[in-house]
Design a protein that fits this description.
The complex is a heterodimer. Chain A is built from 16 helices and 2 strands. Chain A is mainly α. Chain A has one domain (51-349): ABC transporter involved in vitamin B12 uptake, BtuC. Chain A has a two-stranded antiparallel ribbon. The longest helix of chain A is centred in the N-terminal third of the chain and has 27 residues, at 47-73. Chain B is of the alpha/beta class. Chain B has helices at residues 5-10, 56-64, 86-91, 109-119, 135-146, 162-174, 192-203, 218-221, 242-247, 249-256, and strands spanning 18-27, 30-40, 45-49, 71-76, 79-80, 94-96, 180-184, 210-214, 227-232, 235-240. In chain B, the strands form 2 sheets. In chain B, strands 6-7-8-3-9-10 form a 6-stranded mixed beta sheet, with helices on both faces. In chain B, strands 2-1-4-5 form a 4-stranded antiparallel beta sheet, with helices on one face. The longest helix of chain B is centred in the middle third of the chain and has 13 residues, at 162-174. Chain B is globular. In chain B, 46% of the residues are buried. Classes of the chains: A mainly alpha, B alpha/beta. The A-B interface holds A 11-13, 15-17, 19-21, 23, 203-204, 206-212, 214-215, 217-219, 221-230, 233, 236, 352, 354-355 and B 64, 66, 85-87, 90-91, 95-96, 98, 102-108, 110-112, 114-116, 118-120, 123-134, 137-138, 141, 150, 153-154, 156, 172, 175-176.
Chain lengths: 355, 261
Amino acid sequence: MALVEATRGSPASAKSEDWSLTGIFQAHPVLWLLAVFLLVLPAFASNFVLIEIFGWAMILGMIALSLMFLAGYGGMVSLVQMTVAGCAGYMVAIFGTTVMTDISLGWPWWVGVPLAIVIAVIFGTLSGVLSVRTEGIYTIMITLAIASAFYYFTLQNYTIFNGFSGFNAVRTPIAFGVDWRSAVPFYYLILFWAVLAYLVVVYVSRSPFGLALQGIRDNARRMAALGFNVTAHRIAAYAFAALIAAVAGVLLVWHGGQISPGTAGVGPVIDILIIAVAGGLSRPIGAFIGAIIYVMLRTFALDALVAVGLDGKRFQLLIGLGFLLIVLFSPDGILGLWARWRARMQRPNTHGGRA
Amino acid sequence: MAVSVAERLSAVGTANALELRGVTRLFGALAALTDITLTVRPGERRAVLGSNGAGKTTLFNCITGDFPSTSGTIRFFGEDVTHFPPHERIRRGLRRTYQISALFTGLPVIDNVYLACRGVSRGRYSLLRPRRNDALMHAAENLVQAVHLTGVKEQLVAELSHGQQRQLEIALALAGAPRFILFDEPAAGLSPTERIELIEILTSLPPHIGYIVIEHDMDVALRVVESVTMMHNGRIFKEGRPEEIESDPEVQELYLGGGHG
């Protein structure tokens, strides 16, 4: 906000800094520290930490981010985002190279991956077409129905989706002379797309498209009375969110090296909702905060329970309790807790900036 | 009013601004509007009066398409808009305000007005943030100034006072190039000073912009219009000039006098 302060003298120009590209780079210092940390992480972290903790968290974070975009800005709680990612993952497996040679087409990645993303975006957009005329609980029900339908379809279809076992040994491509399967390049690949997705969402949130989406969230009827086609705008939001989820889905299938109906089963679909809500739906960073907490709990809850002499099999209980506590104490997840803590610290010298 | 009626009317085209023919709106078995036939010339400024439940707001909802009419036709500057969705009518120059402020409480004042400007121009789906000298941002700034909200333009709408929210409500309706505006009780809950400001805003609108105003405060209503339509039980009950309506014995009995009796 420094630039805004500097130009405050002339009201005609004071407003514009906030609207331009520079707004993105006026990030909170914590975000800059986080960026540096993530960039230098491969220098000292093991491959396990790189890929199974941070890599996985960033992929799940991107999918949760696509939900955050729809729910936080658009007021549409879509449970179909994990399914969109799963759809992209399946398409990568079908177009690319796997052990299922009689199904997989073995096309080069630069054909298969863009095509997979296009198909997943179409799938996500069509899900939007079906659900945007509903509100609240009905949106959740319809998108959950689509997600379940996709799950059962992939489970029972053997000609395209290879049923229960899905696709194993999905090969991450070697491109531009880099083997993207090895840990450090793959980590940076995920980091690149996760950061890009984050920045794009932050940027778009203040664009006409993003502002209008927030207007629709606050009062859809008034938006129509201002000349906006609310239905079309909501569908476009689904398409935009699907693009983020689809890119994440490509990374997801490369991350696991396999994809099966369970990848986008009802469990993972709900997990994405939990991640987004626990992290906080009010700002894009919440999706990634929720994802890292989720991955940490998934990875270490079992060991933590055994360490204190409890049955390790109860680790799901610990995860559930953790998220229950977060949501119980703060409706806006971790972000809400953070905002409240900061408000308490800053109360004596409050600035007039936006929350 | 500074500009004469005749001057105002000559500034616009020949087709009627609004032409309603036999507009009826049913809610189940209840007829909220029955056979409304109404003609408003371009630039004309009219008040719609009537007790609660007379169908005034329903009339607005049918004109904008918030609720489609059950039967009848609605023409806007000669064009049949009966089956148009609301946003198509708005893009043709129709505007409205709401009786209960319908604002975007999670966004700052300036963004509310910016959205209103964007809604009636191209680039609604633009993914690019407005540039430094964006024309619509300037338009939004000017509108914010016109309704005296410059001091709070960066504040979230949820933090505004009632009076400020009412002023913002009007600013949203003035965005773009309005040709005809429907004001639904713009003075509701305003202080006497704010009412004077409101009258100023309404009377200083460019002459080609006509409007219909629903208003219970006769002091406000009759000072900003040149014609009056009285509604009762979903029907048009009487039409005339403000002074005719004010002195009409039937009207006085029904509405102005012991209306609540």
